TrEMBL record:
One of its GO terms (molecular function) is glycogen phosphorylase activity. InterPro entries: Agluc_phsphrylas, Glyco_trans_35, Glycogen/Maltodextrin_Phosph, Pyridoxal_P_attach_site. Keywords: Carbohydrate metabolism, Glycosyltransferase, Pyridoxal phosphate, Transferase. This is glycogen phosphorylase. It catalyses: [(1->4)-alpha-D-glucosyl](n) + phosphate = [(1->4)-alpha-D-glucosyl](n-1) + alpha-D-glucose 1-phosphate. It comes from Capillibacterium thermochitinicola. Its EC number is 2.4.1.1. GO terms for biological process: carbohydrate metabolic process.
Length: 537
């Protein structure tokens, strides 16, 4: 059995214990595992106040609220409680089971109990200070392993999705040392049980902690400074620890594999990083009428137009703006992180304004910034200002979440993506769009390097350029492709557009499904571990 650890799980819009792509990947992983009968359990945290609900104030600037939880009646009480030690105090965590959105069981730890001094520790995802984060990682990692033991589950492989979970490795080592192994024996045996998925190539996204804080909060879990330093360095880097605690690691696209291998090459004793490209759960993200039309080689344009109308109705409902169903609708919805350059297309006014004023293009944006990310919030504010200046042509939708993601990746005509290369590890929203025949229009970063057949299933721009003036270079390329290839096809050659939709759906359902991803995890990540273990024993 594989235990898949992740800080966040995006299973359903009504259960907002996720922030963005990482959580949606984890949710899609569980659903795909359940579909194909793989023996997998998820381990996470019950964030009772979720991540953030983000709206726009009178001045056009984002502000944060705690999201409303609807009904948690689908949580099942396992009857299991486990204890961890945080700042030398016992913290009890209740273990809930969620199997409502997927048949793969997800176990969630919850410290919101009357006996705990800090019941708020598991309230809010990715908020709070450094010590809180360490405490949350103790709950996920150490508490998670103890929960699996208390539940009596026989786990063969521990899969850490991102570095947040690495303290589970420290617990596995502690267990073995308690049974009499030396630290080195315990570390080696533990490594044979762990695989690790690394994510962001943005350095700030790779969390590191001072040893003083780790020791104070209780992450050492009985290990010494020297032993912890050997695993994560000093300061203790969670990604480095993931690489040293595992036998095999993976990056989330081919290009990200190259980037990650360069980024971490100086880390001694790290596991090799292979590339297993992300995929998305088809039944969650592909509209049923599109699936049907694609299977029957039916009228895709008509099916798409119905999804576009649903999006336009949602836009009208949320903003009062009425968009033109026949003009090209460009969508951009992602976490508002600055490297994703959400406002790039708005920066070339001489190109943009005539296209907007003539009504040939319309833009719909959505995205949340991290509550403490000023740069991301300023980027949102710029988009909001443009939406104010161009009513009915530029729209910003507040509080991006899975529900909006679903409507947008079904209803836009093209899906824009322009991260600063090579910082987008994968970029799964494009796979969702592509499955719906919403054509990708993206720089060659993340998954699109593998997926793109220019002019056949979507378009690239910028030719993978990396260097000075990347914004300027990409912006010119963007408008060139938009004006000379995309608009003429959209406006004058619907037959070719429909053909491209078919090609896009085929590429994404075959190459970029969570089903394919699960199979690769088993063939290339899990199986080598099992095989090596059998040889040893
Ligand atoms: C799919 C999804 C993401 C990930 O999209 P990227 O392309 O990686 O930016 C983030 N947030 C939500 C709500 C999603 O549905």
């Amino acid at each position: 059995m594989v235990a898949y650890f992740c800080m966040e799980f995006g299973l359903h819009p009504d259960f907002p214990i996720y922030s963005g792509g990482l959580g949606v990947l984890a949710g899609d992983y569980l659903k795909a595992a359940a579909d194909d009968g793989y023996p997998v359990v998820g381990v996470g945290i019950l964030w009772r106040k979720g991540y953030t609900a983000q709206y726009i104030n009178e001045q056009g600037y984002p502000y944060d609220l705690a999201p409303e939880f609807n009904n948690l009646s689908f949580l099942k009480d396992t009857g299991v409680k486990v204890q961890v030690t945080i700042k030398q105090q016992p913290v009890t965590c209740k273990v809930w089971l969620v199997d409502h959105f997927s048949n793969a069981p997800l176990y969630l730890l919850d410290a919101d109990l009357p006996e705990n001094k800090e019941p708020w520790l598991t309230h809010s995802l990715y908020r709070g200070n450094g010590d809180d984060r360490i405490a949350q990682e103790i709950i996920l990692g150490i508490g998670g392993v103890r929960a699996l033991r208390a539940l009596g589950l026989a786990v063969d492989i521990y899969h850490f999705n991102e570095g947040h979970a690495v303290l589970a490795g420290i617990e596995l080592i502690r267990e073995k040392m308690a049974a009499g192994l030396s630290f080195h024996q315990a570390l080696n045996a533990t490594r044979r049980q762990i695989v690790f998925t690394t994510h962001t190539p943005v350095p700030a996204g790779n969390e590191a902690h001072h040893h003083g804080a780790l020791a104070y909060v209780g992450a050492y879990n009985g290990l010494s400074y020297e032993q912890m330093k050997q695993i994560g360095g000093d300061p203790f880097n969670m990604t480095v620890a993931g690489l040293r605690l595992s036998t095999l690691s993976n990056a989330v696209s081919e290009l990200h594999g190259e980037t990650a291998r360069k980024m971490w090459h100086q880390v001694g004793d790290a596991s090799p990083i292979i590339a297993i490209t992300n995929g998305v759960h088809q039944d969650t993200w592909q509209a049923p009428d599109i699936a049907l039309a694609a299977a029957r080689r039916g009228n895709l344009i008509e099916a798409h137009q119905a999804n576009k109308q649903l999006l336009l109705a949602e836009i009208q409902h949320r903003t009062g703006q009425i968009l033109n169903p026949d003009a090209l609708l460009i969508g951009f919805a992602r976490r508002a992180a600055t490297y994703k350059r959400g406002d790039l297309i708005l920066q070339h006014k001489e190109e943009l304004l005539p296209l907007l004023e003539s009504g040939r293009i319309q833009l719909v944006f959505s995205g949340k910034a991290h509550p403490q990310d000023e740069g991301g919030k300023n980027m949102v504010a710029k988009i909001v200002a443009m939406a104010k200046a161009f009513p009915g042509k530029v729209v910003f939708l507040e509080n991006y979440d899975m529900a909006l993601g679903q409507i947008l990746t079904r209803g836009c005509d093209i899906w824009l993506n322009n991260p600063q290369r090579p910082l987008e590890a994968s970029g799964t929203s494009g796979m969702k769009a592509g499955m719906n025949g919403v054509l990708n229009f993206s720089t060659l970063d993340g998954w699109w390097v593998e997926g793109c057949r220019h002019g056949i299933n979507g378009w690239q721009f910028g030719d993978g350029y990396v260097g000075p003036n990347q914004d300027y270079h990409d912006l010119n390329a963007l408008y060139r492709v938009l004006k000379t290839e995309i608009l003429p096809t959209f406006e004058q050659d619907k037959a070719k557009w429909a053909q491209m939709m078919h090609a896009s759906i085929e590429t994404c359902t075959q190459q970029f499904s969570a089903r394919r991803m699960l199979k690769e995890y088993y063939d290339r990540l899990y199986w080598p571990l099992t095989a090596a273990e059998e040889k040893i024993s």
